[in-house]
Amino acid sequence: MSLFKKIFTKEKKETLDKGLEKSKNTFFDKLSKAVAGKSKVDDDVLDNLEEVLVSSDVGVNTTLKIIDRIEERVSRDKYLGTDELNKILREEIAGLLSETNTGDATEFVIPQTEHPYVIMVVGVNGVGKTTTIGKLAYQFKSAGKKVVLGAADTFRAAAIDQLQVWADRTEVPIVKQKMGSDPASVAFDTLESAVTQDADVVIIDTAGRLHNKVNLMNELTKVKRVMQKVIPDAPHDVLLVLDGSTGQNAFEQAKQFTAATEVTSLAVTKLDGTAKGGVVIGISDQFQIPVKYIGVGEGIEDLQVFNKFEFVDSFFK
């Protein structure tokens, strides 16, 4: 049985296909040129494939891993036709993603916890952080969960206002203070409110700035420490939001944030309309952090749970 059996609903799969269309088309344009006139996978084809993967924002280190795996197969099988390359790439990239993304979730679910499940969301301004929080709130609420939002990005008034818009739109409660308030205080109040309301999920927004990594680290550490006064094992998930359309810049942001705090999962947004979808493969592999969600459209339902098999199937369709 193929690894790539259909897991998503038809509608969800169509959204994913459409969201990755530009990345897929650009990748296959490059790939067809890389193997033009060749019948078997040889050193020239592998050199060209390496260039294709790097220029598709997969990243140098991950590209070299993929090339090594294909070289092993060429050596083992003695002959591999270029017509098989698409299938081989699918299998090897799915295998690589499986090392970090071990689950097979397709729906918005949370682990069973004694207290509300706390998600602390980090990421620079402009990557779609607040929008991702709003869409997550919508999805969890649609799944029957009671959600509370916390506006702990007190650095910008616009961030608080934007989160309020999403709270109104999704009809979930929000805890906020005025601009310039202590983010840890907001997080504390949010968790206390969530416990009182017997909420299932708490999503905490945090300041999106990287100009001083030390300050960011101190702030996030303090927010976590204060939350643990209410819920000892909070946060259960530190979700880093990255803008997929920025390609290699997303790698740099991941590097900065993983140095500043313990990131446990990733959301890669704005994959629709960009040819840089390969960044999902590289970032997941390089940082050994699972991709939990991907944004493949502007609609409220266009944030999807990342499923490695469906992603690779759409990318190589």
Major beta sheet, specifics? 8 strands, mixed
CATH class categorisation of the largest domain: Alpha Beta
End-to-end gap: 18 Å
Mind telling me the CATH superfamily name of the largest domain?
P-loop containing nucleotide triphosphate hydrolases
Helix-and-strand structural type: alpha/beta
Shape: elongated
SSE order in H/E notation? HHHHHEHEHEHEHEHEHEEH
If strands are numbered along the chain, what order do they take across the biggest sheet?
3-2-4-1-5-6-7-8
How much β-strand is present in the residues?
5-15%
Q: What is the total domain count?
A: 2
Explain this structure to me?
This protein is of the alpha/beta class. The chain has two domains: 10-100, Up-down Bundle (Four Helix Bundle (Hemerythrin (Met), subunit A)), CATH 1.20.120; 117-307, P-loop containing nucleotide triphosphate hydrolases (Rossmann fold, 3-Layer(aba) Sandwich). Helix content is 50%, strand content 13%. It has twelve helices and eight strands. The longest helix is centred in the N-terminal third of the chain and has 18 residues, at 60-77. It is elongated and about 65 Å long.
